[in-house]
Write a structure and sequence with these properties.
11 helices, Nucleotidyltransferase, domain 5, alpha+beta, five-stranded mixed β-sheet, elongated
Length: about 550
């Protein structure tokens, strides 16, 4: 006996109804929907939607209330995922964990459906479908209020893939407001894309250009992700949907993508006047119903994505058996009364034992909580001791480093001595090594200071001699903190100073200090060069003021 199937495809612009008897299409009808009644696959105006459903079934005089429903793939997600080989009882949890990781939408906003597909050895492959709850909830509630019972739901792109007989193919379906692109490789439809047209005013030429562009991008994306199995030019493109000139669309796509483009043909028989390309989604639903869980076409995916809360409740075996078992229950009740009286005494004894056991258990739990508190306190003390140990270790390391620096500085200070220098004292305070001593002249003292630059200490010195400050001492004592001397050379008549300054103003200030000392008859800036970050290199020539002895 042939199986009568009622299928319904719901999109933003229309309802498409088709009835089949076995593999023969018997009835079909399309009812346009007003704009705003269904938006982006979500039923917005429920009352009007329910009225249109009832109108469609009444006009077609369809009394069957069990329907298979197809929805757009817009905002729905599909993923083939690979997992380690797992026991069946662990697979559902593993799929949910992987879905939570892989999908860009929180699982709380989605309904998940999945099935296993062929996989390599030691692996498990699962095809996952996720649909937004707001889409499924609004549609299912509306259909139920219209008096329909849904026994199957699926996505339009996956239903189209079931019709194709090739294991590897490209499918393009064009509707009024959207189009789908599906690449099916070895029976697995992925990627699956549903793309909206910009608006109703878009011309057919603009739509064709947009389809060509997105199809080329999808093929390029697939080939880049599968370099070992790219789509060669022999892979066909199958076209279905609402184009006014299907042959024109096939030719336009073939010219652009370089693949053979063919209309998607129906495996069902149809009467005169029926346009298969407009009802391919309904045909896919009918094929899935006819094949049940068996494979139809080349697609490895055969999913019913109807959310569990809306699936028909299975007939309870208990409800079937209750009427016939009533007599048996009446007989058993007498036996139960007798058994109850006998068991009552046993229950009293067991309850007494249970109370004792419960008291012992409470004592053990109390002891356990007390031990847990002590352990937590000890762990806290251990943590504090560890922090103290780390701080003490850091302080010890710092002191050792400081000790080593002091020893190194003193060694450098002593090893840098020459016969022309005598040290009176060495004192270390607040990271400053103070050296008091006597040198034969300023040049010797500066040379000694330069030898001390190999350590991380600032050597501070004052130059003094009997009878007043030497010329070299004036040069050093007049030096601002911001200027660094890189060289001092002297003759009987002049001193030449080389150094670095942060700016020109500091150099001028330094020259004024030297001039104010009264030791020099002329001060000349012989070189002034800008270097990085505004700093200056300079050279000063200081003519020493000669003291003339007057004859008495």
């Amino acid at each position: 006996m042939a199986k009568k199937i009622v299928t319904l495809f719901v999109n933003d612009t229309s309802l498409r109804l088709m009835v089949t008897d076995g593999k023969q299409i018997k009835e079909w009808a399309e009812l346009p929907l007003e704009p705003g009644l269904v938006e982006n696959a979500v039923v917005v105006k429920e009352a009007e939607f329910v009225a249109r459903i009832k109108q469609l079934f009444e006009v077609q005089k369809i009394t069957t209330r069990k329907v298979a429903v197809a929805i757009s793939g817009f905002r729905c997600l599909t993923r083939p995922i690979t997992l380690p080989q797992l026991p069946k009882e662990m697979l559902n949890e593993a799929v949910e964990r992987e879905a939570e990781r892989a999908l860009p939408v929180p699982l709380g906003q989605l309904y998940l459906s999945w099935q296993t597909i062929p996989a390599p050895a030691e692996k498990t492959r699962v095809f996952l479908v996720a649909i937004p709850r707001e889409i499924a909830d609004a549609l299912c509630k509306g259909l139920h209020k219209a008096g329909l019972s849904i026994n199957l739901m699926n996505l339009k792109p996956l239903l189209l893939a079931r019709i194709v007989t090739e294991a590897t193919a490209i499918i393009v379906d064009v509707q009024t407001t959207e189009f789908d692109i599906v690449i099916m490789a070895k029976g697995v439809p992925q990627p699956v894309r549903t793309i909206l047209f910009p608006g109703e005013a878009v011309s057919w030429q603009d739509k064709t250009a947009m389809i060509n562009n997105e199809l080329d991008r999808t093929i390029t994306f697939y080939n880049s992700g599968n370099p070992e199995n790219p789509l060669d030019a022999t892979i066909p493109v199958f076209v279905s949907g609402e184009p006014t000139d299907e042959i024109e669309l096939c030719q336009a796509l073939s010219d652009e993508v370089g693949h053979p483009v063919l209309p998607l043909s129906s495996p069902l028989d149809w009467p005169e006047g029926f346009v298969p390309s407009r009802y391919m989604v309904n045909i896919g639903l009918a094929l899935q119903q006819l094949s049940s869980r068996k494979k139809a076409g080349a697609s490895a995916v055969s999913l019913n994505i109807l959310p569990v809360p809306y699936q028909p409740k299975p007939i309870s075996l208990t409800n079937i058996l209750v009427p016939s078992a009533a007599a048996v229950v009446a007989v058993l009740l007498t036996l139960l009364v007798m058994l109850t009286q006998s068991a009552s005494a046993d229950i009293t004894i067991i309850r007494s034992r249970l109370n004792i056991t419960d008291q012992l258990l409470q004592q053990k739990l109390s002891q356990r909580q007390e031990l847990a508190g002590k352990i937590a306190g000890l762990e806290k003390k251990i943590s504090q001791a560890e922090v103290s140990r780390i701080s003490f270790s850091a302080a010890t390391d710092s002191l050792n480093q400081q000790k080593n620096r002091i020893i190194l500085a003193i060694e450098v200070a002593i090893e840098s001595l020459t016969s022309n220098i005598t040290l009176n004292s060495i004192k270390y305070t607040d990271s400053i090594l103070s050296i008091n001593g006597r040198a034969s002249d300023g040049k010797v003292a500066i040379s000694y200071f330069r030898r001390g630059e190999s350590v991380d200490f600032t050597l501070i010195g004052n130059f003094e001699k009997q009878g007043g400050v030497s010329h070299t001492g004036v040069v050093v004592n007049s030096l601002p903190d911001s200027i660094t001397l890189t060289g001092v050379s002297a003759t009987n008549e002049r001193l030449t100073i080389n150094g670095q300054s942060p700016n020109e103003g500091e150099i001028l200030s330094y020259t004024r200090n030297l001039e104010a000392s009264g030791q020099f008859s002329q001060i000349t800036i012989s070189r002034l060069t800008a270097i990085k970050d505004g700093e200056m290199e300079f050279s000063l020539v200081l003519n020493i003021k000669q003291v003339l002895n007057k004859a008495e």
